[in-house]
C-alpha cells in the first residue's frame, strides 16, 4: 500500500508528522518543485518523500490537503483516478456537494 499527501501547508504537514510518528513512508507533493519543500519534509522525518505531483498521485491512497479550488488542477494530473482511494481532508465549508462533485474528478466522487 502506498500513500501520498497532496498539499504541504498546515494540514499536509500535520498529516506527514502523523505518518512519520508511525514509521509509515508517504510521498508529499505540491504544484511547486519538490526541492522547494524538501528541507521541511526532511525536518519531519526520513519517511516523508517529496515528489513531483504527477509521481505522488500514483499512490494507492491519496490525501488531498489543498483548497477545493485546486481540486481540478490535481485531478488533471492523471487520466483516471479509477481504483484510487481519495481522502479530502480539507474543509469545504460554503461549497455545495454539487460543486465538489464537479471539480474535475471523473466520475465525480461520492460526497459523504
UniProtKB/TrEMBL annotation:
SUPFAM superfamilies: NAD(P)-binding Rossmann-fold domains (SSF51735). Residues 3-91 form the Pyrroline-5-carboxylate reductase catalytic N-terminal domain. This is Pyrroline-5-carboxylate reductase catalytic N-terminal domain-containing protein.
Amino acid at each position: 500500500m502506498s500513500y501520498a499527501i497532496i498539499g504541504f501547508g498546515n494540514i499536509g504537514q500535520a498529516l506527514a508528522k502523523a505518518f512519520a510518528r508511525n514509521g509509515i513512508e508517504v510521498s508529499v507533493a505540491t504544484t511547486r518543485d519538490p526541492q522547494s519543500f524538501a528541507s521541511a519534509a526532511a525536518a519531519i522525518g526520513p519517511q516523508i518523500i517529496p515528489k513531483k505531483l504527477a509521481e505522488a498521485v500514483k499512490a494507492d491512497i491519496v490525501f488531498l490537503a489543498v483548497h477545493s479550488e485546486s481540486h481540478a488542477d490535481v485531478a488533471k494530473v492523471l487520466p483516471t483516478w479509477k481504483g484510487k482511494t481519495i481522502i479530502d481532508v480539507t474543509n469545504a465549508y460554503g461549497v455545495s456537494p454539487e460543486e465538489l462533485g464537479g471539480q474535475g474528478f471523473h466520475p465525480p466522487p461520492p460526497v459523504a
